[in-house]
Amino acid sequence: MATRVNTVAVLGLGLIGGSLARALKTNGFCERVIGYGHRAPSLEKGVELGVIDSFTLDLAEVIDSADILVICTPTLVAEQVLAQILPAIAGRADAPIVTDAASVKGNLERAARRICDGQYPPRFVLGHPIAGSEQSGVAASRADLYINHRVILTPVAENDADAVSLVRDMWLATGADVVDMDVAQHDAVLAATSHLPHVLAYALVDALAQSDASDDIFRFAAGGFRDFTRIASSDPVMWRDIAIANKAALLEAIDLFSGHLADLRTAVAGEDSDGMHATFTRAKAARDEFAAILAERAKGK
Ligand SMILES: NC(=O)C1=CN([C@@H]2O[C@H](COP(=O)(O)OP(=O)(O)OC[C@H]3O[C@@H](n4cnc5c(N)ncnc54)[C@H](O)[C@@H]3O)[C@@H](O)[C@H]2O)C=CC1
Ligand SMILES: O=C(O)C(=O)Cc1ccc(O)cc1
């Protein structure tokens, strides 16, 4: 593809930032990808693996040399990084476009307004790739991570249309499908489909690991346990940040789920076979429909 910009900077070179860097280098969206972080080791590894061309620990240098800054740090760190970047680029005609990949959008929208005295910075575009895994770190990054996966952009009214368009093109260049969503809708949907399942997996594994029978439980666990709990191997810092940043929507999702679990407990205790059968049948139909959608999407690969 024709090169769109000279330099993309990835701030926080882990699974998500490393995979973006690899994809952009593979498809020629930019001339070079540079890395920025608070510590050298993962960035040195990124250069060694050919994920990035160079790196710096100096944020001012990144701001001066990149066309697009992509914040790929844990969610709450992204607020701190924004607090350093936005004042530094305010009013600068040659300022880079800023975007991010964090899992929650509302906290970053609020942070951006707070940092800029209530005025949303037009060239900051909120984004979130719905692709990843329980792994983390630059060594786990892959150039094909985003192919046929959704990337959600949550532009706000004050956004500069050209900035949104360039960020959209960047993600399209990775092979992703880019969709727009409202910030609050994004956070509610992701609380239900991603943040709640991670909390449930962590809770289940923690509860069983602390029980007296934990040795037997893990020794004899079947595939269902493995499927349900894979995501409990995800990075605790990342998920702690997500739970804090999306507290309101996550609490709503937990409460909705707790109500259903309580109903199911009542059905089990009362041997309510019709009630249980109805719940399991409804859930199976919904899950089968979801599996069919996934299969259709995989065909597009
Ligand atoms: N892992 C996943 O499946 C997905 C993660 N996300 C989001 O993407 C972001 C990154 O996630 P991963 O790449 O999985 O995490 P990661 O742990 O693999 O990478 C995060 C990187 O940020 C760096 N970092 C930490 N503190 C920093 C600081 N103060 N300044 C500069 N760099 C710092 C770390 O050194 C690391 O290189 C998170 O906000 C996460 O919520 C979004 C979609 C999927
Ligand atoms: O590992 C998995 O299945 C995931 O769910 C990956 C993931 C983690 C966080 C996100 O914000 C989006 C996707």
TrEMBL record:
SUPFAM superfamilies: 6-phosphogluconate dehydrogenase C-terminal domain-like, NAD(P)-binding Rossmann-fold domains. Its EC number is 1.3.1.12. It comes from the Bacteria. One of its GO terms (molecular function) is prephenate dehydrogenase (NADP+) activity. Gene3D superfamilies: 6-phosphogluconate dehydrogenase C-terminal like domain (1.10.3660.10), NAD(P)-binding Rossmann-like Domain (3.40.50.720). One of its GO terms (biological process) is tyrosine biosynthetic process. Pathway: Amino-acid biosynthesis; L-tyrosine biosynthesis; (4-hydroxyphenyl)pyruvate from prephenate (NAD(+) route): step 1/1. Residues 6-298 form the Prephenate/arogenate dehydrogenase domain. Keywords: Amino-acid biosynthesis, Aromatic amino acid biosynthesis, NAD, Oxidoreductase, Tyrosine biosynthesis. It holds the Pfam family PDH_C. It catalyses: prephenate + NAD(+) = 3-(4-hydroxyphenyl)pyruvate + CO2 + NADH. Belongs to the prephenate/arogenate dehydrogenase family. This is prephenate dehydrogenase. It comes from Halioglobus japonicus. The lineage of its organism: Bacteria, Pseudomonadati, Pseudomonadota, Gammaproteobacteria, Cellvibrionales.
